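Q: Hi! First time doing this. I have a protein sequence and I read that you can turn it into a structure. Is that right? Here it is:
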Amino acid sequence: MRLLFLIATTAILSSCGIYRKYPRATDVVSEDLYGDIKLSEDSVSMAMMSWQEIFVDEKLRCLIEQGLDNNTDIRIAKLRIGQTEVSLKAARLAFLPSLSVTPQGSSSQFGSNATSYTYSLPLTASWQIDIFGRLRNAKERAKVAVESSYAYQKAVQSELIATIALQYYTLAMLREQEQVVEKSAELWSETIRTMRLLMEAGQYNDAAVSQAEASYNSVLGANLDIKQQINEVENSLSVLLGDAVHSVETNSLSNWQNPQALQVGIPLQLLSMRPDVIQAELALASAFYATAEARSEFYPSLTLGGSVGWSNVAGVVTSPGKFLWDALASLTQPIFANGRLKAQYRIAQSEQEEAKLNFQQTVLNAGAEVNTSYLQIQTYAQKTKLCKNQVTALQRSIKATKLLMEGGSSNYLEVLTAQDALLAARLAFISNQYNEISSYISLYQALGGG
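A: Yes, that's right. Below is the predicted 3D structure, encoded as structure tokens:
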């Protein structure tokens, strides 16, 4: 009865502990988080869209699914989740008493006396009463660690999806550039043939033909560089997919479809969706509980213990054995610990403030990345139209210049210049298409896409 009374008393005392839940830090988000971007609270945000809704290319989808299944970083993230969940289970079980059985036996003989045997079969229990929230703070830290491991997995997944998409469209860009360069090489070959015929007619000299051949060889060299880049990207993409090196098929850049949801949402959406922001706040919550745990070390700890069992040892050796039990309660109050407890508490406070600053900086970085990606989309969309108009104008220029050259009204330098300009414009148009797509991918990642 006394033991039950003691347990009830300590349970009542535990309700007066110093434990409290982590209060969310709401003062780190400013109204102008995204800069000059106009926000719409009722719009659908890219942050709320799944990657399947953004990346509609079937070939790309297959690659992303393969990467999510086979990538080693994703597997490691899943293992970390399992580790933190086991730690949380252990933190929850810390509230229960620990039980142990320690059977003992011995034999002894003195002189010619008969051998005597002693034994004991005790069941020992120890129960730490969480009066000042030490165990609850530890449990909350373990819960935060689990949530952080899930956020880490999401961050790895988001980065993997974005990287696969970027590599995929890089490969598509290089292949389109390869086609343009090969077509340009054919045009150069035709131009050289025409110039040789004109040289035989006395309109050009060997210097003009030689310069055209030099430009032709330069184009062939550029084509070899593109082929090498294609091989490198395929190798890199194969590694991301967790597969052996192999050729990867892609669709044209023109198959890309811009997501309909261009609004980036409101700051709260960013905080709730972006993994690194989630992790930063969870780190702040963990530091908060660590500080509370360090503070609870200044208060006494109460441990209940006892044992019950069967033994033939009770002052004298008797046989058979008899039932015995005992109960123990211990209260430990730290008085002097060489400054260790104060040092731990001050360090925990400093780490909590550091975590808050890191959280604030992470939010600011997130806002800047969203702003950059969003404005890049607008810029590259406008440049794509200009590049397309430039290619069209240069195509007309080449046709006109060739006709003038064949009629003797233009020289070979104008033809060479026009063809070089057209090749550069076509490559720039393809690069700008890729940049526009990569800006959408960057925005998806900046918003913590799922």
